[in-house]
């Protein structure tokens, strides 16, 4: 049987179409291709935060997630790997991106491989991935791959000189993520906090006889 792996793709773009979603999709496609080359069947779930903005706000105000938001969080925290992409506003991640991860349990992404991506109008914002986005996932105890991918407006241009740098960065990050995801296999194997380590009859010590 072909081994299966799952990827959750979190995109915080606000417009439609969105360059943030486009970068997330490029990272997803490259990671899936690398996993398939290594003999894995990859299943992906796209989490578009724009569609969950009201649910996220309500969760912050009430402390309770909606069923739709719960489903998105479960898809991400149970995945073998995560692709997380945010637009850069005012030299940092977007408020929507941060708010989503604010409603995720701090330990829910412990040990989960994550590739980080961001988009912005100028390449000078690329360092935000290192001083803002990466520390956020360090706090969440995720395992971020070494290569983060930033796409500026010129990276989506039509000239060969403009677009030559982005595909290699995507491929390198995808290779790093796929290697960690291949070694993970968290899907369907998450520990059950209520699971018994021995049959219930043994725990009773014969009281049920």
Automatic annotation (TrEMBL):
<keyword id="KW-0560">Oxidoreductase</keyword>
<dbReference type="GO" id="GO:0016491">
    <property type="term" value="F:oxidoreductase activity"/>
</dbReference>
<feature type="domain" description="NADPH-dependent FMN reductase-like">
    <location>
        <begin position="7"/>
        <end position="156"/>
    </location>
</feature>
<dbReference type="Pfam" id="PF03358">
    <property type="entry name" value="FMN_red"/>
</dbReference>
<dbReference type="InterPro" id="IPR023932">
    <property type="entry name" value="CE1759_FMN_reduct"/>
</dbReference>
<dbReference type="InterPro" id="IPR051814">
    <property type="entry name" value="NAD(P)H-dep_FMN_reductase"/>
</dbReference>
<protein>
    <submittedName>
        <fullName>MsuE subfamily FMN reductase</fullName>
    </submittedName>
</protein>
<keyword id="KW-0285">Flavoprotein</keyword>
<keyword id="KW-0288">FMN</keyword>
<dbReference type="InterPro" id="IPR005025">
    <property type="entry name" value="FMN_Rdtase-like_dom"/>
</dbReference>
<dbReference type="InterPro" id="IPR029039">
    <property type="entry name" value="Flavoprotein-like_sf"/>
</dbReference>
């Amino acid at each position: 049987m072909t081994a299966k792996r799952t990827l959750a793709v979190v995109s915080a773009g606000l417009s439609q179409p969105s360059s943030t979603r486009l970068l997330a999709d490029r990272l997803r496609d490259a990671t899936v291709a690398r996993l398939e080359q290594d003999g894995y069947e990859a299943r992906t779930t796209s989490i578009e935060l724009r569609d969950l903005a009201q649910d996220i706000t309500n969760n912050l105000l009430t402390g309770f997630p909606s069923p739709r938001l719960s489903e998105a969080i479960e898809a991400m925290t149970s995945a073998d790997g995560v692709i997380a992409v945010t637009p850069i506003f005012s030299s940092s991640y977007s408020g929507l991106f941060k708010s989503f991860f604010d409603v995720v349990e701090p330990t829910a992404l412990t040990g989960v491989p994550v590739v980080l991506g961001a988009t912005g109008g100028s390449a000078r914002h690329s360092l935000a991935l290192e001083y803002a986005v990466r520390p956020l996932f360090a706090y969440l105890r995720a395992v971020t791959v070494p290569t983060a991918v930033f796409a500026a407006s010129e990276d989506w241009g039509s000239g060969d000189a403009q677009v030559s740098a982005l595909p290699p960065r995507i491929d390198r990050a995808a290779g790093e993520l796929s290697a960690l995801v291949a070694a993970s296999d968290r899907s369907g194997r998450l520990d059950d906090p209520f699971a018994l380590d021995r049959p219930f009859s043994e725990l009773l010590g014969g009281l049920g006889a």
